[in-house]
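From the shared-data thread, chain only:
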Amino acid sequence: MAKVNLLPWRAERRRERQQGFYVMIGVAAAAALVIGLGAWVFYNGQIDGQNARNAYLTDQITQLDDKIKQIEILDKKKETLLRRKDVIEQLQANRSQMVHLFDELVRTIPEGVRLTSVKQDGAKLTLMGLSQSNARVSAYMRNIEASGWMTNPDLNVIEAGGGDKTLPYQFTLGLTLTKPGQVIGPDGQPMLDANGKPQMGPAPGAASGASNNSAPPPAASAAASPAASPAASASGASSSKGGATP
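Structure, as tokens:
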């Protein structure tokens, strides 16, 4: 006799398939959640690390900016000190120049010329005065040119109209202050070397002194001539006496 299964097996199989499907969906959702959570944690860690590095770099940049400002302040102080040092060195070097300048002004001024004003602007000197004639001013310029502490005399103005009848001419004379042996450029200013200091040439008269030293001194001839002169005079005296003797 045949057996007939009257149970709802199709519904049971459908229910089993649905349960398996729900389980797979749950596993996939859990896996996706885990993967997403892991990715979120990983990228948050990367972002936090990058933010920490950025904060470190920002802090270092701030420190470097502070150091740069301190270096700029030190550079300004250094420049100020160097300028003061240059001024002090210049004053030290020119300390005796004023003494020589007034001495040369007294030495070079000729008779018939009188100074009324002296103005200095760096290495430039402006002299204003009165003179008897143009020739007196020309002689004064020649004396300045021959001086070792003044050079490049330039006559700006000379005109008649002085209040003193004995000195009827007014003149304005410009010149450049220098030192013996200092090199003067074409513009009338002292030439500077690579260190910014006045360039010095050979001292005046050095070549002539060297040429004089190279020539042998005639000491032997000079010494022999005084020694020979008494002998010659003695022999001349004896001959004269011999001739006078009968």
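The chain has a mean pLDDT of 76.
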